[in-house]
Amino acid sequence: MKYLLKAASATVITLCTFSVSATNGYFAHGYGEANRALAGAGTAYGFDAISSLNNPASALQIDDQFQFELAIFSPKRGFNVTGQMAPPPAFSLALGEVESGNEYFIIPGFGWKTQLSEDSSFNLAVYGNGGMNTEYESSVFYGSNAGVDLSQLFVNFGYAKQINTDLALGVAPIFAIQRFAATGLEAFGQFSSDASSLTNKGHEITTGFGLKLGMTYQLTDSLTIGSTYQSTIKMDKFSDYSGLFAEGGSFDIPSNFSLSSVYEWSNGSLFALDLQRINYSEVKSIANPLMPNIMQSQLGQSGGAGFGWQDIDVIKVGYQFQLADITYRLGLSHGEQPIPESEMLFNILAPGVQEIHYTAGIVVDDLSISLMYSPKSKVAGPNPLTCDPVNGQCAQNINLYMSQVQLSFGYRF
């Protein structure tokens, strides 16, 4: 049964191109066409079949529907190395700028919602969570061409129940699929617990399960508040990369939670404010720092080096209004930087440096269109493997950067 499940998962994730790069770390800035157009704000409010599963309790607020959406995502990312080449045992990188290829991704998604009774509903949503992707046309680390490809697909099954006039609760079991590949890491074989399971093993598929809980409360006729919590999603280990990721290839999806408030005017306008926290520190393969871990533990062990990502808080605001028969949406989100300046080397592979997202969208009848722009963001710091252990001076600096644009379309039946 397990092998049949993995085979089905591989088919789904191969047919759907979910190999997208980072936004808030590697979580998308929003899920569902309405939520994306509001920069991820408004999770206390049910907009459509996919967006409502940001908070499974909000599905009671929308009509029965089927929704399909398609996004075209374009990240531009790369790095620049300055300073000088240091002699061994320092691990210097070639000086200059390198940009990643593979700048366009197609991201489909669909959702379905149906009312079960006067006070309960069911909905289903399938969408890409996010991911990391780099594809450098050079060795970078003096091996084969370097890069990683992490894709994540979520399947949410939501049930919502109206408890009383004001309070609704929701629960959504989550089935998750991951696909990962890494290339060009041969030089780190000396630091690995299993150099044969470190790099160039092709794509590997893993699956896992988690849970999302949600609540909405009608505080006044105009003001709705809500909260949602998504558990850590426990994934099968990447056995082909057990010599890369900590704990023998473990790469769980970290938990996150949100608080949301939506104020609605009688003319259909609304203002949304959300606060989100993403707990990257829960997952050792993401949170373990490069130094001193790479000198004290081997890659693949519990204390092996990771990407050094920190927990982040994201604030999101959105505004929706109507003119004639057209609905307009605007949004802005700002997230903390997950990558500290001390973690530049490994994050060449995963430059999730974005902090600000600007969004806009329109809805005409059942067709919605949205645009996201995230301006170029940079993080710079030393190459830690060129730093003198006595005086702390480093021979090289690494500057990571990325910008993003996304155009998406949704249609509701």
Stretches with pLDDT under 50, minimum 5 residues: 1-19
Order of helices and strands: HHEEEEEEEEEHEEHHEEEEE
Task: Please compute the radius of gyration using only Cα atoms.
Answer: 22 Å
Number of domains: 1
Neighbour order of strands in the largest sheet: 1-3-4-5-6-7-8-10-11-12-13-14-15-16
Strand content is: over 45%
Which range best describes the helical content: under 10%, 10-25%, 25-40%, 40-55%, 55-70% or over 70%? under 10%
| Beta strand count | 16
Write the CATH architecture name: Beta Barrel
Overall structural class, as computed from helix and strand content, comes to mainly beta
The CATH topology is given as Porin
CATH-defined superfamily = Outer membrane protein transport protein (OMPP1/FadL/TodX)
**Helix count, DSSP H or I runs of 4 or more residues:** 5
- Inertia-based shape: elongated
Sheet with the most strands? 14 strands, antiparallel, barrel
- The top-level CATH class is Mainly Beta
- State mean pLDDT (0 to 100 scale): 92
Distance between the termini: 35 Å
Outline:
This protein has 413 residues and is mainly β.
Description:
The model is unreliable at 1-19 (pLDDT under 50). The protein has one domain (2-412): Outer membrane protein transport protein (OMPP1/FadL/TodX) (Porin, Beta Barrel), CATH 2.40.160. Strands 1-3-4-5-6-7-8-10-11-12-13-14-15-16 form a 14-stranded antiparallel barrel. A hairpin with a 2-residue loop joins strand 12 and strand 13. It has 413 residues and is mostly beta strands. It is built from five helices and 16 strands. 8% of the residues lie in helices and 46% in strands. The longest helix has 14 residues, at 2-15.
